[in-house]
Structures are given as C-alpha cells and as structure tokens.
Amino acid sequence: MPEETISTVTISSEPSARSSTTANNQQPQPQSERKPLNLGPLTEIHAFWIAGMSCDGCSIAAVGATNPSVESLLLGIVPGMPKLILHHPVLAVEAGDAFVHPFYLAEEGKLDAPYVLILEGSIPDERIAAKTGGYWSACGVEVREDGTHRPIPSAEWVKRLAPGAAAVIAIGTCATWGGVPAAAGNATGAMGLMDFLGRDYRSAFGLPVINIPGCSPVGDNFTETVAAILLFLQGLGPLPEFDELGRPAWLFRETVHTHCVRAGFYEEGTFAENYGDKECLVEVGCWGPVVQCNITSRGAINHMGGCMNTGGICIGCTMPGFPDRFAPFYKRPPGSLLSTNTSRLTGALIRRLRRTTLAFQNRETRWDREGNVPSGWGAVQEPSKLKAAMHFLYEKMQARGTRAKIGSKSSNN
Prior knowledge:
By secondary structure, the protein is an alpha/beta fold. It contains 14 helices and 9 strands.
C-alpha cells in the first residue's frame, strides 16, 4: 500500500493575547505569525460557538434542524464527514475553566484537529462599555496581573480565534449583518461579523466569512451549509457556491415570493385585506417579492411552517437592510402601489379566463354529451352558450398541429 501523503498549508495566527488591553481594540490585528497546518483525511473537527448580542434563537433553530440534524453531525454518522466536536456555551456539558480550556488551545494552535468558528449574535463595540469598566457580551474570565478577574468579551474571542479557523460562519441576521442590535438608535455600536473582520479577512483555508442570515434562520440552512463545508475541508467535495455577500447561493438566490404559496393570488390580482385572509399579503405589509429567503419552500422546521405558509407577512429578516429598511413593520410597502394595481388590471382578465377553463376541465366529456352531471352532492351549473363557444375555440387551439380530438366529441363511448 503506497505511503499516504499529507499536504500542508500555512495559516495566519495572532500571538496569544490574554491581557485586558485587547478588549478595547475593536478591529482585528494584522495576521503576522505563521505556522503549518497538517491536512489530510479528518476524523474530527472542533466548532467553537461564540455568543454575541443575541437572543439564542439561532441556537434553537439549529438544534431543530433535520437535514442533516445536529445530532448526526456530532455523532459523525454522515458518510465521509468528520465528527463535529461542538463547544457551545449552553449545550456543553462542561462549565467554567473546563469549558474555556479548548478555546485557549485553539488560540495557541495546540488542538489536535482543525476548528471552525461560529458566531451567533452581533459584535458590539466593547470600547464603549470599557469606558465605564463594563462589557457587552463575554465568555469566560481571565486573571489580571493584580489578581482580579476580567470577563473575556466575545469580540475578543473572535479576534483571537478567527485567524486560525478553517472556516468562520455567521449564523443569523445579527451575526451576518448586525440585525436588531445594530438598528438605528442602538447604544452598543453593534455590527455583523463581516463588518468586524473586514473585506480582506480569509480563514486558514482561504475562505471569507460565510453568512447564513435569518431571524431566526432556517435550521436546515445552517446544518446543510456546515455539512457542505465539512465535505470541502475533508477534500470530498468542491467549495459550495456562495453569492457576493457570502450567502449559500443555492439557498438564498430566489426571493420569498418566487416560491410563496400565495404567489398565485398576486398574479391574479387578489390581495388580503386583513390578517388571516388567504390571499397575497403584500398589501398588508409583506415584503416577500424583494427578500431573498427560502422559508416558503423549505419551511421553518422539518419542512413545516414558515412565515407566509402560516399566514404571517415577510418583514425582510434575512436581508442586510433589516430591520431599518423594512420598518415600520405591517405597513404596505410603497412599491406595491404600482405592482399590485398593475396586477389587478391584468389579473382581473386572467382570473376570469382561468375560471372558465377550470369549469370545463372539471367535467367529464360524457357529461357534456349527455347534458347531465350525476353528482348527488349538489347541482352543477351548466355552462352558458358564450362560455361553451369560448371553450370550443380553446380546444381548437389546444389541438392545433396534432391529430388529437379534444373535448366532448373525442369519444363515442
């Protein structure tokens, strides 16, 4: 058996920095020190989950995923995929120093496997909080030289771990674009991970920040993307396609409206007037036609639910402009004045023509010949002469260029 060749790449890494001064330096430091990273078939990979300014909704969404599930990733039962070792501040069994210890090992390059960094929640400007001796969000504590303890801000952990990570993933709109904590009037100076690390950031494997937005995101969107990245890191698949903002292109290329279960009503120019109505929700505040998200086709959990599927409007929660560019919520978008009125004009005619065709397609040809519908459930109205003439022409057009005989004269039985 030929000897296996292990390739190496060089990665950028910051020197270990455990002093309180890094907490006040908001932007990541230049990547200077380089060290080799052994590559080859991976049996396991660590995932460090950092919580910033978040509500933990992204964690809840992730553990509800089914394709693949978080359990299958942690157990390593997905064929060809390395086992994922998750370091999550809520889900971990360890606590205190035992929980934080692997973070230090990752920072110092002493882990026995590669790692990915996952951020949930936006990154606040810790310089603002430091002015009064406080912090916005943190994980673990360090001992200062004078013996006192200092919480380690989440922003600092990102700076420490991002340079050596095989991939850096932002889950949820707060982590991707800043979200609600970064909305107008916020006091924290919060921002998304891509804004924090900057345009030139690349992971140890050469990847920019990967963004999986949503408030909260579809759990399967997250685990599916993680699985695809792990297969790439394993060397078993190509790098998945991402759009210009780092979103999985196959998940966020289409708009909500494209696959919305209510899109047919829009086309026919019928719109809901109140919440709970079955028609298109654009006129009661839905932004679906201009929002990139797959919630209507994939559902929220286990392919079930989803905002418009259950009667809710789209408020644009996956988009970089959320929430400011979509506020106030539940108000009709200005652009709908033109689009919905145009749809009403064309839809009124289309709707009537379709109803006529539907009425004839809902009949056996025998019923037309015998002039009777033998249903005991109710009286079926016979089509008027005008509609019968219209449908006769319709069937002629349908059979044009073929030898087919369509309609009531197509059978003598």
